[in-house]
Structures are given as C-alpha cells and as structure tokens.
Amino acid sequence: MSDSQQYIELAADIRIWASELGFAQVGVSSIDLGEHPRYLERWLDAGYHGEMEYMAKHGPRRSHPDQLIPGTLRVLSLRMDYLESDTQPLQVLASSEKGYVSRYALGRDYHKLIRKRLAQLARRIEERVGGQYRAFVDSAPVLERAIAEQAGLGWIAKNTMLINPSAGSWFFLGEIYTDLPLSTEVAPINNHCGSCTACLEVCPTQAFVGPYVLDARRCISYLTIEHAGSIDPELRPLMGNRIFGCDDCQLFCPWTKFAQDTEEHDFKPRHQLADSDLVELFLWTEELWLQRTEGSALRRIGHNRWLRNIAIALGNADTSDSIISALKSRAEHPQALVREHVTWALQQHQERATQALSC
C-alpha cells in the first residue's frame, strides 16, 4: 500500500474514531495560517486584548504551530457540540431577577473532558501509524479558530466566532498537533455572513469596532471573566443580568437555528445554573460556592469576582425588598472590590426610587 493510500484510509478511520469519542467533526489544517497571524498582530497593536497579556507574550508560536511544537506538519481540528437547547436563554435574559451564565459554562468544565478525548484519539492514531502528537484545548498559544477555518470546520464570522453551516457556533474546539503529512485537500467553507450585522448591532456594550474586530475591553465575557478589577461604571448598566460571559452575538445570529444539541451528559446544566435567581446566587457562601462550582469553568473567576458580577446584575434588576436586603448583607464585605460594586448597586436602586418620587 502506498503512503498516500495509507493516509487516505487513516483519514477515514480518524473520522470514525473521532465520532465514537463524541466529536461532531474533524478536519486537517496545514501549518500555514495565511493572513491570520497578521490580523492578530494588528489586533494586539490596537490594544484590543486588554489585560490578556498571554495573547501577546508567546510571540510567533501562537501563529506558527511548528514553532510551538517543532516538527509539526499538520493540525487536526475537532469540534464538540455543547448547547442544551431547552435552557431558554432568551427568557433568562429577559428576567432581571435571574442570573445569566454563558451556555458553555452551565455544565462541567470542558477542558479536561475534551483533552482526554483528544489524547485517546491521538493514541489510536499512534497505534496505527506511529508519529508524534500534542493535544490542546485552550491550554497553549493556538489560533484555534484560524486552524478550524482552514480545516474546513466553518468560517470566522463578523462576531469573530467560528460558524458551521450545519451547526451554528455552539461548539468547543480542540487541536492535535502532529508530524504526520496528512492530506489538507479540504474545500474551504465560504463566508456566509453576507450583509447581516445582527451580531454587531445586538452587542449590549457595542464591543465590536467593526465586522470581524472585537474590542475585548468592552466585551461582557472579558469583563466578567478575564478582567480582575473594577468594572467601568459606564459599562455596568449595559451588562444587564449577565454574570458570567455573554452569548448575545451567538443567540441573535441567524445561523443559530442550525445548532445541534449536545450528547455529552457532562455539559448538561448543573445546580440549576441555567435559570437561577440572582439573590440566591449572591448569598452563596464561599464554601457553598466552592462546592457548587467544583469541576466548573466558573471556578476560574473566584468567589469575589462572582460577587462583583452579581452585584452589578442586582443593581440593574427591578427593585425588590429581597434584592435590597441581599445587597446590604454584603455591604461590609472584607474585599474592597465587592464593596465598591455593592455600593454602586444600592445607589442605582436609590436613584430610581428618588426619580419615581419626583414624577
């Protein structure tokens, strides 16, 4: 059997193995990422990454897979669906007393699960043909959406998300770097955004500078997860009840209707996080918070930022005795970060009450 025939058969087997491991699709990318490295440089030069210094510190290794892992010739790009469609995200967003958690974070943290599956796939390939492999899931400087686009998994849309024409954008990505010369003859998926600007217009904080350009410093996902300090008071009212991440640019994308429900039990919502009252979440003690967020992506922000985010949402909520009482219970919190945002939230309710009396 010729090498080319061997790799054709291997590619077919990889698709089967990936499906058995719960992946919805797999593709192969070369290590030449075209214009994407230059786009990244311009984005970083503009300072749109904010406090995410890790985006810049790895230099060319993020844009050149063979510099990150010497000897790399190809990158396997895989996606796994995570949406649980019956969580009614729009209803939660419309209820000011509810806390909105980005749909990807409702269940168990995806990093370990997907990395384990990638490692299993890599072992099966190695057992068949040998070779070297490294698996990544947000764990290294990798331009995962650029790689996925070149691997034929979708196109990078105006909201900077990867969209698949038969699955929308509600999926995780993972990569396997390998020294195997697998075929990359995949027809790219054309960009189908057209003249649509729904994602740009619906962004609560207007974080998009323009199509395909996101200023992370205004993005609610960045503010509630990556940003460690005080949140700009001008942006707080725009955040609504979003306490961990934001999905608006996906929720209102026309391609969302093609999203596939996840088959992974670990991605199912836990502790009623898909539809929880803000007051209840705000009153979780740190001990209870640690218990309820074990194995969850929520853990990365810590309890103090959790309280910071919910305080803002409570400040934006319709006034009620329970909300005022909950906020006052944290007014003397030992952390200045929490106290600042609780004070702001109480002021919002006071100002509304004053305005109501003057009408």
Automatic annotation (TrEMBL):
Its EC number is 1.17.99.6. Signal peptide: none annotated. [4Fe-4S] cluster 1 binds at C193, C196, C199, C253. [4Fe-4S] cluster 2 binds at C203, C219, C246, C249. Its main location: cytoplasm. It is an enzyme of class 1 (oxidoreductase). Keywords: 4Fe-4S, Cobalamin, Cobalt, Cytoplasm, Iron, Iron-sulfur, Metal-binding, Oxidoreductase, Queuosine biosynthesis, tRNA processing. The keyword Cytoplasm applies. Binds 2 [4Fe-4S] clusters per monomer. It is found in: Cytoplasm. One of its GO terms (molecular function) is epoxyqueuosine reductase activity. The keyword Oxidoreductase applies. Cob(II)alamin binds at R62, D138, N159, L162, L173, S221, C246, D247. Pathway: tRNA modification; tRNA-queuosine biosynthesis. Monomer. Belongs to the QueG family. NCBIfam families: tRNA epoxyqueuosine(34) reductase QueG. Catalyzes the conversion of epoxyqueuosine (oQ) to queuosine (Q), which is a hypermodified base found in the wobble positions of tRNA(Asp), tRNA(Asn), tRNA(His) and tRNA(Tyr). This is Epoxyqueuosine reductase. The lineage of its organism: Bacteria, Pseudomonadati, Pseudomonadota, Gammaproteobacteria, Cellvibrionales.
